[in-house]
Amino acid sequence: MRVGPSQDEIRRQNLGALLRHVHVHGATSRAELTTALGLNRSTIGALTADLAGAGLVSEGTPKETGRAGRPSLVVRPESARVYAYAYSIEVDRLRAARVGLGGEVLDRRDLDRPRDLDAGETVPMLAGALKQMRERVPPESICVGAGVAVCGMVRKADGLVRLGPTTGWVDEPIGAALAVELGVELPVTVGNVADVAAFAEHARGVAAGCDNVIYLYGDVGVGAGIIAGGRRLTGHGGYGGEVGHMVVVRDGTPCECGSRGCWETQIGEYGLLRAAGRSDARGRDALLAVFDAADRGDARAQTAVRHAGDWLGFGVANLVNIFNPEMVIFGGTMRDLYLAAAAQVRSRLNETGLPACLEHVRLRTPKLGDDAALIGAAELAFERLLADPLDAA
Amino acid sequence: MRVGPSQDEIRRQNLGALLRHVHVHGATSRAELTTALGLNRSTIGALTADLAGAGLVSEGTPKETGRAGRPSLVVRPESARVYAYAYSIEVDRLRAARVGLGGEVLDRRDLDRPRDLDAGETVPMLAGALKQMRERVPPESICVGAGVAVCGMVRKADGLVRLGPTTGWVDEPIGAALAVELGVELPVTVGNVADVAAFAEHARGVAAGCDNVIYLYGDVGVGAGIIAGGRRLTGHGGYGGEVGHMVVVRDGTPCECGSRGCWETQIGEYGLLRAAGRSDARGRDALLAVFDAADRGDARAQTAVRHAGDWLGFGVANLVNIFNPEMVIFGGTMRDLYLAAAAQVRSRLNETGLPACLEHVRLRTPKLGDDAALIGAAELAFERLLADPLDAA
């Protein structure tokens, strides 16, 4: 443990803190930065000059304020020039984007993904999307790396996808394969889709400022990205947050993971379509059709939605008792289910949650919508830049 | 956010880091401190002199090493002079101790606690134990405060016991009441017993060096102290870790908390005694009698223990899937149950846990035994000293 930081370390930390501030909050005046970072004006000026010299920020005069006196210069992230590539590998689609510093999606490509597509076939499709986007990158841009969100359990150490119960992938080195396909000397960071979506909503979404958050994400299965004490909960190997495989019915319905009675057998795509008498249907559109039928008075669809909503509330209550979060966010198909069955969710949650754990918890839908996974994947790549702006750029 | 620390802050951090090192690791040579803290020899010398001047550490020559050359001076915590008071409020007993810097129990008092004892009657008993211990404190000792471990949900902000399902306490300001009874100008910090026991096992017990730990603690009910990414998981209000109230049987047996089918209805004292046909019995001795009867071949006791062991493995598997810990520790009555039914625990865990989450998880019993709660309570008080040694002493 090195306790006393060196001058170099302090400067690097300060550069990172300033760049992070404008990355998260957008254009900020020097005066506001002085207050927010607790540094004096001349230090802010010197840090800004260094970051501007590296092409990461620019300075300019603010819009007319109407106030007298010389306005404080405004520091802006170079969102159009500094970017990361972001991927989201979902069960039924692949998405690729170029995301600028500051979190703006500059370019994007969406592709359908057949459910039986293996990892070896998936990677070239992602590389192709990148190739198309690369042709449109303005000159003198700075790429800081690539981030990948994937529905599956991702090993923290090297980004290996250990298991994707809903894709059937086992031990797929997605990050390494993509790095080869991209053919560039850029780091590729891989994360679970629920984890990175939580990261994005915590950094710049509905959970900004919340230190204890559960982001429940449904695709075909269900997982959670968890923020505890302001930090991402990863667990020992990176597999933390597999709440969809919390067993809620002992010796219940077989699950894709090999166990039985997992929570996602009740609230995931397969369980809900089965309960609605539509076992042959697949995909989010099929789920939305069930919610729509329930809305229009279809009794079987209503029963299925109420049943799944009750189980959603049941599992959320368990998580609320275990984590005592201040916010639960429902993303992906969990957003659809929550909106269709909010009464059942709240009723079961209130019945089963401990009163002290319930009193400050807010239930929310994502602010970044489906883009949370892409923006979060880009954040994985930006993290490296923010840790050491001048060395990484 | 202040990014650049001042010289004063750096010195305070260094003092705290040195004192924490000898508090956790015991007597340490100056040479080892230089390496461990990443500071040069003259800084270590100056910091040690400051701490010795405040009476917190002493320096001396080490025991004979057999090596040539002048030995490096050894820095020792002043364990006999610097101390905290520690309390553990359990369902059937009250414990009080005086714990020295370094974690050594210097004096202790144990008292029986009738189950219907209310908070107003409990506090004077604890104050009486402290009065007895205080008479034996050597002159020129330094008391840094008091810490309290309590079986119940403790509000982080002020130590209010919101709910003790097994004591029947609701909204009891234990910390404030104790501060009045103690009649001293010392801070009193209150924490949940599982949380503080986990803290102690993480600081100086079986989980030292582990960053992701679940300490499962059973008294009459069941709770967990959780270490995630090296830090205590508290949740928003301080109520995190109420794993005993994870519902495992929907609409199951009524629980003391007001809900139904909570995990502790299957593995806690009441459930296990009921399953063994001993609903009228109470207390840890009654539980131990069931384990003993099972050992001696009593069929009903064996069935009850196997049933509870299976449920213990079931819940641990859920927590392993959610947290991906590297260690699960079984403390209090959960230690007894785990040791009596380890085969059932492991069998169900292996059946239900995700392979990636299982591959590095170790199941352990506490190193500090039942003293973990007392030592952890003292750690709550020492935390203040370690944050700012010269100001707090």
TrEMBL record, chains A, B:
Entry's InterPro entries? ATPase_NBD, ROK, WH-like_DNA-bd_sf, WH_DNA-bd_sf
Signal sequence bounds:
none
- Name the UniProt key words of this record, in alphabetical order: Kinase, Transferase
Do you know which Pfam families this protein is assigned to? ROK
Q: Which GO terms describe its molecular function?
A: kinase activity
What SUPFAM superfamilies does this protein's entry cite? Answer: Actin-like ATPase domain, Winged helix' DNA-binding domain
Family assignment from sequence similarity: Belongs to the ROK (NagC/XylR) family.
Can you say what this protein is called?
Sugar kinase
Species whose genome carries this gene: Micromonospora wenchangensis
